[in-house]
Structure formats: C-alpha cells, structure tokens
Description:
The structure holds 2 protein chains of 2 kinds. By secondary structure, chain A is of the alpha+beta class. Chain A is 52% helix and 20% strand. Chain A has helices at 2-12, 14-50, 75-84, 153-159, 208-214, 236-246, 255-265, 267-298, 300-308, 313-350, 367-393, 397-406; strands at residues 56-60, 88-102, 112-120, 128-133, 147-152, 166-174, 179-194, 203-207, 225-230, 250-254. Chain B is built from 10 helices and 5 strands, in the order αββαβββαααααααα.
Amino acid sequence: MILTLALRTLARHRVRTLLAVAGVAVSAAMLLDMVMLSSGMRQSFRALLVEQGFQLRLAPRGTLPFDTEATMADASATVARLRARPEVERVSAVLGSQLHVARPGSAAGEGTVTAFAIGIDPRVQGDYELLDGRDADTAAARADAPVHVVFSDGLLAATGARLGDTVQVAVGHDPQLRAFAGQRRAIVSGRARFRFLAEGQRAAAIALPALQAMRGTDGHDRASVIMVRTRAGADVEALRQWVDRAVPQATAISTELAMRQVDERLSYFRQLAFILGSVSLVVGFLLVTTLVTVSVNERVGEIAVLRAIGVARRRVVWQILLESVAIMIAGAALGLLLGLVTARYLNGILADFPGLPAAIDFFLFQPRAAWTALGLLVAAGVLAGIYPSWRGASLPIARTLRQEAVG
Amino acid sequence: MGEGRDQRVLSRALLLLGALLLASGAPLRSASAQRLDTLTSAPRREIAIDERLATDAGLRIGDLVTVAQEPGGRGDTVRIAALVQRRADPSEIARGEYRVHLHLDQLQQLLRYGDRVDRFAVATRDGAAAAESAMEAINDAAFGFRAHRSRDIAVETSTTFAVVSRFHRAIGVITVVASAIFLLCIMLLKIDERRRDVAALRLMGISARSVMRSVMLEAAFVAAAGSALGVAIGAAASAIVNWYYRGVYRTPLAFALVTADTLVLAVSLSIALGLVAGFVAARRLLRVPPLALFGR
C-alpha cells in the first residue's frame, strides 16, 4: 500500500522523476567507476604478481624490478644460496637487455628491429606464457650454433619472422662504431605472451647463459631480477629479511611490499576515485533531497488530509522515504549498466599508458564493487528522504488544511 | 662553440650521467667514519645532490660521502657542495629515485665509461630556424649520432600525461552531463513551484515571450551565481591539490591550474546549460493554459 502510493506519487510528475532518475544514474555510474578504479588496478596488479606463484623478487639494491638498467653480480651464487633454503621451492633469475633483431635473410645492423629481451631458464620462468611452438633453450648452445628463442606477437610482426626462421640477434649496439658487443644466430622456435609487458610490445626470451654471454663482461653472471617462489606455509617476510641481510647487492621485494609501492605510485588514481566518488554521491543525494522536498511541499494539503483521516505519522514517513529510495534504486540500476560502459571506455584510455602490462586493468569489475556502489546509493537515498519525510510528518494538520482550503 | 655554450653542454651531459649513476644503484653513505680520508693531500671532488636525498639521508652541505658504482664497491669520497631542487618535470613525478650531480670526468671514471656521454644538449642562438639547420647539419655530418628536436623528445616523454589528460577530459564530459541533468531538474522544479505566479502573470496580460525571457534571465543568474561559487571552490581546490601533491611527490610542479581559458569555458558552459534548462522548463510551463496552472 505504502509502496504503491510512493510509486504513484512519483509517476504523477513523470518528466521530473525521469530527470531525477537520469541524474542519479549518471552519479551512480560515476560512483561505480570510481569504486572500480580504487580497487581494480590494485587487484589486477596483485593477480599479475601472484599469477605464477612467485612471492619474492630480488632487484638491484635500491631499485624496483626493471625500473633501471642496473643488474646484480654473482647471480648464480645468489640463486644457489636461495635454492639451498628449505622454504624455497623455485628460483628464476632474469636478465633484461635491449636486443637488435635482423629481419630474416639480413645481417645484424641492416634494418634491425629493436626489442626487449629477457634471459631466462624456461623450466622455472614466470614471465611469459608459451602460445605456440617450442620453448627457448635451457642453456647456451655453442657460440657458433643457433639458439632457440621465443618471440612476442609484436616482434614477430615487426620482423616478419615466422616460427622456424633463423634470424641474427645482437646486443650492445655502439652507434659510433656501428658494432655490437655480441651477436649470434637464433631460431624463432615459439610465440609467447609476455605477462609483464604491454600489448604489442616487441619482446624475446632467450636462454639466460646465452644472453649473458652475448653481453660479454657487462653481462657475465649478472641478473636484473631474481624471482623466488616459496613452499606453502613458508614465512615470506622472514625470507625477505634474510635476503636483505645475506645478499647486499639486492633489495628483496615481497608481493605485499610491491603492492605498497604500487599504491604509492598510483595514489593519485585512488585519491581521484575517492574525491569523484564522494562528489557523485553528494550530487545524487542533493538531487533526490531537492526533488522529494519540492514534491512534499507541493502536496502538503494531501498529507494533512491523510493525517486528518487517521493515517499514522510513521506511514507518512515511510512513504516519503520510499519515494527517495525508489528514485535511488531506479537510478542505480540504470547507472550500474551505464557505469560498466563508461568503465570500459575509461579503461581503454588508461590502457594507452606507455609500458603498462596488458594484464593490468584500472577498472576491474568485481561484484563487491557493484554491491558497494548500490549500498552507498541506497544509504544516500534513505538520508535524502529524512528531511522531506520529517517535514511531511511534522506538518500542523489543522493549520495546513485551513491554508490549503483558503488557498 | 663559445665557452659558455660548451659549459651548458657539459653541465647537461653531467646531469644525464648523474642520473645514470643513480640508475646503477650507487649508494651514498655518510663518510663521518672515514675522516682518515681527509688526510690525503688531493682536494676533494664536489658533488651536488637533490634536496630529497639530503632530507631522507640527513645530509648537509659540506658532508663527506662515498659514491660507488656497486653497493659496497670501491668508490670516491666526495664533498657535498650544493643541494639542488628537482625540476618541474612531469615525467619525473612517479619516479622515486634520488639524483646526484657529479663532474663528468669523475662519473666517467666511476662507471669506467671512457670518454663517452649519453647525449649532448645543444642550445642555439636564433630560435627555431637555427635549431632546425643545426639539427640538419649534425645529422648530415656526424657519424653515429642522431639529433632530435627538444619538442619531439618532449612529446615522446609526455605520453603518460597525454593519457592522463584524455582521462581527465572524459571524466569532464561525464561531469558536464551530470551537471546538465542536475541543472535541468532544478530549473524544472523552480519553474514548477511558480505555476501560480506564471498563471497570474499570463492572466494579467503579460505575454508568453516576456515570461519566457524572465525565466531565462533568472536561469542565467542562477547559473552565473553557481559559476562564481564554482570558480571560487575550484581555485581553492586547485590550491589544496597543488599543496598536497607537491608535498607527496616533492616537486615544484603545478598539478592543477585555473587558467583564463578554463574559467571562460566553465562559466560560458554553465550559463549556456542554465539558459537551455530555463528554456526547456519555461516552454513546458507556457504550453499549459493559465487556468489549468491554477488547477481549474
């Protein structure tokens, strides 16, 4: 009965109600987007970090993984020490380098394509997912024998190479001498998706010893990052502290620490999400409060009659509250759909950030985000109805009836 | 090249190599425990460090520190001669590393870099045309070099901010849509509240056009007053944003600017929206016969 009355009252001024619902829908869309933004990038970054189960990353002291060109010396000794720890299940050393790839049929230096290469041990690596063909070699072959490498789609497209082609790869380009520090033949044996790289980025994976050897003294037994996976139930923080003490050339970064650093770097987006989300909520609240207050002012006579014939004050309050909540719920339902569309559009804009891994989403839909947005809107709807319902319930019946009758 | 220009080139190359040293994870530790070093007769080399490093490491001008390529490796003990403030460079905002400025030759020795630099910066005397011809001359003559315009490099390095700018624009469009609906709704309510006034005016013989003008004028005033308040809030918010983010990122960069263009756009958009909302609301009301507005 109360619900029917509330809905009929709203239907009486269709244009006004539709505009209010549209206003709330835009606010709700913005609110949902901001809730998604505030938690989405964090969640997707965490998912990316833990996807392969590595909980600890060692980077050159004072740096973040691949944030600089710095490398760590004595990588094999560090890997051996880590593997000797009982709580460590897997260790993967990675060396990053710029790689110059000659198109099939041409020599290095002639029409080369520049790519980012990682030197890995394919048996333990967590940097890429092999999509097609066979994996890279596990060890360096003889210097004069070709080494099997894996290319990203971006690099395959840029070089025009196909699986099975032999190409010339080189590192350490000296522009003055037009010479390379090291080069060798490579067979493109596989196609892979590199988890930490941007969509379409040119990348290659090659056996770690082969890449180290190509870099000469500059790459001898060096690694850019060492990733560590611990056994179930291991104390990651204790291991991190041990690494910090025992490996002076490295900074150990746990997933939690990495998340904190990402939070710090991307704090702008979280704060923006908080501010815009709050503003959206306030705008929706003000809109509904204004609308319902005006609506109550227009029908004080009706309310006074209802009260005069014995309708309880509580029922009047409920009816007005229901009006504001109904506008909020209708707007929220429309806004959630609109929010998903705008989130997709905004995510497309932010996906153009240079170097952003393809797996990172700024706007990640999670049911929790939708429920949070809906809960906040319903709460705002209830709050928006408090003032007009108080006003409606506290009308002096006799005086209002007299004023309305006299006009 | 004149001497002053050489120095400019040198200092820029020095700055770039300074960044490279930091990239190598070079540690800086207080050399207070290494006072014996000061007994050597050779004069100390001097470095400049950024003020964030000075704050975080508790360093002051005159302190002795050791700089090395590798953590714990052999390095040089140098004196801090100057503190420098970070440039207002957007590309450095999210980067947390410290900057140290060394003399070029010293850094080359530390890195075993030989007589090499990463890049030269060249300032020309006569503006864009001279820069263009200098670039062409370098690219034609130099072997192993490639000259680029500063503005091309700026475009390349500011991609991140172009993305952020597009994101802000998209958010701005959503905000404008929400504001337009809000304004239309409020104007509709305001006009609806005055049904009886409008009916009385019409019955007194005031033309629909005059009522329309009056309503639209009122809408324009409301929008202008709202804009004035919005500009004041925007200016205050901009000051707070700059104060807060300058502290967070420790940079002199301005994050939010209220410019004349922004003001003109915001105020004119707001008044235009107000006028449209007033027109729609008034037209809707004027279509109803005056007696019907009285409820008869």
